[in-house]
Amino acid sequence: MQPPPASAQAIVCHELTKQFGDFRAVDKITLSVAQGEIFGFLGANGAGKTTAMRMLCGLSYPSAGQATVAGFDVYRQQEKIKQNIGYMSQKFSLYENLTILENIEFFGGIYGLSNQQLRAKSEELITTLGLHKEAKKLVGSLPLGWKQKLAFSVAIIHEPKIVFLDEPTGGVDPVTRRQFWDLIYAAADRGITNFVTTHYMDEAEYCNRVSIMVDGRVEALDSPANLKLQYHADSMDEVFYQLARGAQRGE
Amino acid sequence: MKQLLVFIRKEFYHVFRDRRTLLILFGLPTVQILLFGFALSSEVKDINIAVVDFARDNASQQLISKLQGSTRFRLQRAVLSYPEMETAFRRNTIKAALVFPANFNVDLLHTGHGQLQIIADASDPNTATTITNYLTAIIGDYQQELNQAAGPLPYQIIPETRMLYNPDMNGSLNFIPGVLALVLMIVCTTLTSVAIVREKELGTMEVLLVSPFRPLLVLIAKAVPYLVLSLLDFTLILLLSVFVLDVAVRGSVLLLYLETTVFIIACLSLGLLISNVTSTQQMAMLLSMMGMMLPTLLFTGYMFPLENLPVFLRWAPNVVPAHWYYLIVKAVMLKGLGFGAIWKETLILAGMSVALLGISLRNFNIRLA
Amino acid sequence: MRILFFLLRKEFRQIFRDKSILAVIFILPSIQLVIMPQAANYDVKNINLAVVDNDHSSYSRRLIAKVGSSGYFRIVAASPSFKQGLRLVEANTADLVLEIPAGFERNLVREGSQQLSLAVDAINGTRAGLGGAYLTRIIGDFNQAVRLEWQSPAPAAAIDVTSSNWYNPLGEYRFFMVPAILVLLLTMVGGFLTALNIVREKEIGTIEQINVSPIRKWQFILGKLIPFWVLGMVVFTIGLTIARVLYGIIPVGSIPVLYLFAGVYLVALLGFGLLISTYSETQVQAMFVAFFFIMIFILMSGLFTSLDSMPPWARYIAYCSPVTHFIEVVRMIILKGSSLRDVSHQLGYEAIFAVVLNTWAMLNYRKTT
Question: Would the CB atoms of B39 and C311 count as touching at under 8 Å?
């Protein structure tokens, strides 16, 4: 199959590898994600998802292989990449001792939004999330589900080309998860590429395509429907189970 | 009991995993001992002084060459005028100046009286006093030489001074008990409080407290590694003092270890208390560093003489455990006294330890309830 | 510039939100500046003296009265025997024992010479040295007086020495200590807070969100530096105000020069704190490393012991610390009125520290690992 032209690809990586001493956390992964796609990046704990994602975000240098994100090279153009992506880490990383509004202003500000844009964005974001009453409360005092939605909204406040989400719905109730995915769909509709890791296989079904990582390698990559067909499974759960069963690395 | 051992082992792993902190824990006392032993001294020597010589005669030349022979002073290039001297003072290039008036020699020979002026930079008053004393003594010697012909002076009182405990005037002696108290405070109070608050901050304390262990055991398990570390640090300082600084331990080593353990318990309790009243590591650190360390420096007695405390602060040393510990170490280690001489101090220190431990445990239980 | 504005606003908001940290920044140093100089007093006065008078003559009584009225000594006991005097030293009640032997007066008059014994508790070198020197001087004066009573003509040539204490005529030890303690407090607050700052964001995880943003490294470092610089200058101002109101210390030199120097110093110090922060993985580590270095800086800075009395190698090390230069200059400007030209050397060093430390911190802060 002919790869699509580079301009349409948000992320391209070829045999990307990360080595920590003897341990190969990410082992020659090759994949590409199209602009506007919702890409599910699945794998058991310790499979290397977060490490791979950190390389793509320009937070960590790859040991080998090539990759471009938004058309920029992960070795040399990390700062360019950072202008074009949003990132929501596994650990909640907004400032808990600032209010919702202050967090929005800060992160919007450092991405270069003008005052006018900031005002508009804050208003829009608070309305979408229904946080009018809480806008001046400290982020630390919010329930986890709200924090996560807020973190996502802040991660895309500057309308990046791509947003990386590292287990964004961990520990969140099903209703809130649903609402969270609505946010992801809304972002995708605006053309933002979503690169999501998750443990929930029902969420995998929401993705356009998914990859499944086992022991640092990408073992499967296709749309959920095709994968189920290929592995003769009724659900993504089953697909995942079949692949992850052979994993050497545990928790 | 076995569970407790397993638990303590886990805490040991925690403590010993952080190599950098460990390095500092043993590096800090080492560096301090070396600095106090070899770099810092309150002795006054190699002082830069200037001579303003308006006389330029025999007598002034003789006296100047006498000054040059002294190891106490380093003579700066002769200064010619007052303004030049003032500049030197303002630039800190000299600490004192000796001024010879014009006709110094003539006056001395003819009227029998010569006038000399010593100007000292008294922004550091003690050094100024000492310099003035030394200069006066050298001038006195010179005067005596001039009068040599008259024979030895009659009615001479000769004071014989004996330096007790420290005949070589080893400057580091006084600091050793102080460094001991300080380092033990750091290891026990600061580290303990931070270690516990850290677990609070990270949420792992909850996990421990819902485990089948009794809260008291949790605390014991946390405290034991620091107790061991402190005793190791104590041993290190003792060894350094004996082998590097040549300071002999005159009293009973066993007694020293026992007294130290009492002090360590007081420090650990303090650390526990701090951890009870704070919720962030930052706060615990600032409180134990700024709030505990400075009183220790000030009121222990090893940096500053307690006699000089103003009346409204006279009570302060009495409530600082480090003060009592310092007195004990000084008596046992440096003066070679036995338990008979320090039982009162020991009793007070032990009382403090028990009281602190009681308060902090009570506080801990209340917090749990 | 706009990005820097957002960074600064965020830092200030965080600092002002945490009231307990604010208290630590402003109130703790103020309290300490009020208390420390009371305790950090090296004035050697009130030396405790035990007297053993075996002579009970009019001379011995006169000598004791003279010592007692000198202002330096407090006669704590008249002991019947030297042994008992020594016991007082052991118990820390006395610092010195002066023993006047039986037959003192008779021997002095008949034989023309007589010995006196002095025993000094030499564990504390400064106190012992100065105490011994004062007592020797008083005995010397007494000797002179006795001699004059028996022998009318003065010696052939006498040199009258007059001494003047510049910059601090009354020899107030506080004038010397207060400015330096201000530096000490500023250094501790500034050093610790910056050392803990970046590493705290690392520990909490918020730094990730910064690292994936297009913020430049210099913007990030400046964003951390400026707020603490402002706070530091405020603390410095509060300190100067306290020095003025409470201790009557009014800078003799130019205040703008003082602030210029303080400003450059703070940049250097905060750069150092940030450097530690970028190297550390946990707050505990950062704090201990910061404590380790700040302790060495302060001990070697000439705050407590004079730089001149250090061996040359130690002096070179001392000059590699920004604290040393600042303490020297603060004393020079406040007490001696040194001008910008007088301190230009030190200012140059300080500026080099500021540039090197901050550049280093900036290079060592990695957005990509």
Answer: yes
Is B229's Cβ below 8 Å from some Cβ in C? no
Q: Which of C113, C172, C342 sits opposite B156 (nearest CB)?
A: C113
**Measured CA angle at B6 (ends B196, B215), to 5 deg:** 40
**Residue B162 counted as domain residue:** no
Pair (B269, B298) in one structural domain = yes
Instruction: Answer yes or no: do B193 and B114 share one domain.
Output: no
Q: Quick check: A77 contacting C, CB < 8 Å?
A: no
Do B89 and B33 belong to one domain? no
Per-residue pLDDT band at B361 (split at 50, 70, 90): confident
Minimal C-alpha gap between C24 and chain A (Å): 18
How far apart CA A204 and CA A38 sit, in angstroms, is 10
Is C125 in CB contact (< 8 Å) with chain A? no
> What's the CATH fold of domain A6-244?
Rossmann fold (3.40.50)
Judged by DSSP in three states, A163 sits in strand
**What is the token pair recorded at B96?**
């004192």
Residue B339 belongs to some domain of the structure:
yes
Nearest CA in chain C to B95: C308
Is residue B22 located within the same domain as residue B76?
no
Contact at CB, C205 and A82, closer than 8 angstroms: no
Quote the domain boundaries for residue B85: 47-145
pLDDT for residue B297 is more than 70: yes
- Domain locations in chain A? 6-244
Residue B164 lies in a domain: no
Asked if B63 and B23 sit in the same domain, the reply is no
Q: Give the CA distances from residue A68 to residues A13, B304, C86, C275, in Å, rounded to whole numbers and listed in that order.
A: 6, 65, 83, 32
Q: Does C89 contact B164 at a Cβ distance shorter than 8 Å?
A: yes
In this prediction, residue B235 carries a pLDDT of 92
- Cβ neighbours of C116 in B, within 8 Å: 157-160
Interface test with C, best of B42, B275, B278 (most C CBs within 10 A): B42
Q: How far apart are CA A52 and CA A69, in angstroms?
A: 12
Question: Domain map of chain C by residue range?
Answer: 2-40+170-364, 47-150
> Is B260 in the same domain as B335?
yes
Domain boundary among B85, B113, B145: B145
Interface of B with C in 97-156 (CB under 8 A): 108-109, 112-130, 132-133, 135-136, 139, 142-143, 146-147, 149-150, 153-156
With beta carbons under 8 A apart, name residues in chain B contacting C321. none
Q: What is the pLDDT of residues B226-236, one digit of tens each?
A: 888 889 989 99
| Residue A180 bridge partners (DSSP) | none
Q: What is the per-residue pLDDT across B11-64, written as a single tens digit (0 to 9) for each?
A: 788 777 777 778 888 888 888 888 887 877 767 778 888 888 888 888 888 888
Does C16 lie at the interface with A, CB-CB under 8 angstroms?
Answer: no
Within-domain flag for B152: no
Q: Give yes or no: residues B258 and B325 share one domain.
A: yes
* Span B240-271, pLDDT tens digits: 888 888 888 888 889 999 999 999 988 888 88
C47-150 CATH: 3.40.1710.10
**Residue in B82, B92, B107, B299 to test binding to C, most C beta-carbons within 10 Å:** B92
Q: What is the ipTM of this complex?
A: 0.82
Task: Give yes or no for C366 touching A (CB within 8 A).
Answer: no
Question: In this predicted structure, what is the pLDDT of residue C154?
Answer: 52
- Buried/exposed code over A94-123 (b: 16+ C-beta within 10 A; e: otherwise): bbeebbbbbbbbbbbbbbebeeebbeebbe
A91 in reach of chain C (CB within 8 A)? yes
Beta-strand pair B113-121/C47-53:
unpaired
Whether residue B51 sits in one domain with residue B34: no
What contacts B30, CB < 8 A, 6 or more positions away?
Answer: B236, B240
3-state secondary structure (DSSP) of residue B333: helix
Angle between helix C58-68 and helix C104-111 axes, rounded to 10 deg: 110
